[in-house]
Amino acid sequence: MSGDPESIRVDRWLWFARFFKTRGLATKLVQAGHVRVNSTKISKPSHSVGPDDTLTFLQAKTVRVVRIVEVGARRGPASEAQALYDDLTPVPEISNNKPFAERKGRPTKRDRRAIIKSRREMLD
Question: What is the C-alpha separation between 36 and 53, in angstroms, rounded?
Fold first, then answer.
């Protein structure tokens, strides 16, 4: 790969850092325009990123915000991948009004009504 040794393609870095199982999935996400580098939307997987860049992207219905610490040389084990970034993702609020949380197994009809009611309240 030519260019600065402290920069790497964004799709390749996302794959190295183990956010996506395949590089192809990372490429599709970038091409769809769902990745931001330093608050700027990008659509080319060949966009170069390096240390101190901040990436914002959608992963499994969760918005992830990470700051790149290292570029990385390979796709290694998870412990090595976690050293490549600082996770800045905000912690989601935990709702305490889930009546079915204490029970195990399938929710009862009463629990389902409470779930539907709480979902409606969240949308309003």
Answer: 10
Length of the chain: 124
Q: State the Cα–Cα distance between residues 115 and 113, nearest whole angstrom.
A: 5
Distance CA 70, CA 97 (A): 41
CA dihedral 54, 75, 4, 65 (to 10 degrees): 0
Q: Please state, in angstroms and rounded to a whole number, the distance separating the CA atoms of residues 1 and 92.
A: 39
Each residue of 74-83: pLDDT tens digit?
999 999 999 9
Structural contact between residues 83 and 70, judged by C-beta atoms closer than 8 angstroms: yes
Pairing of β 85-87 and β 62-68: antiparallel
Residue type, 68: I
How many C-beta neighbours within 10 Å does residue 49 have? 23
> Which amino acid is residue 86, in one-letter code?
D
What domains appear along the chain, each with residue ranges and CATH number?
A: 8-87 (3.10.290.10), 94-124 (no CATH)
To the question of pTM greater than 0.85 for the whole model, the response is no
